[in-house]
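PROTEIN ENTRY
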Amino acid sequence: MSNITKYLKKYQPEIIASLICLILGMLSGYGTTSADYIWYASLKKPAFNPPNWVFAPVWTVLYIMMGIAAGKIWYNWKKKADTASIVLFVLQFIFNLAWTPIFFYYHSIGWALVDICLLWLSLLALVIINRRYKVIFRLLLVYAIWVSFALGLNFTIYQLN
């Protein structure tokens, strides 16, 4: 067996989960149209709002990191039946995927804020219960920091509009 084959076999859960996270993340924004971006451009935004081009690369990296964490959570679940981590990962991921259509397609800043608060809470719980697994913890912590920033941004946009 070649080194590449061994590597792919060893990290198969992380690779598959990363692809799933990336694909579903891209699909969550699939219904967003240019009219939605025109609407977004018309909103009042705070000075700390990043340029639009920042979001795609950041979310691409975050979806890969989520996938790696999910693969490791799956591996741990198979060893120890850690159902809470699986449930919390799926829950936070559902909130994550729901945010884009709520905000952009439905133009509902308030409901998007509720959604991201639920995302943040479920993610925080996931980070806390995985604190003993260094790699999972660090991957999820980076994601949680970005979601915290996104929550603050969503809240400020809600206040301004």
Observations:
- The chain has seven helices and no strands.
- The helical segments are 3-10, 12-28, 34-42, 55-80, 83-105, 109-129, 134-160.
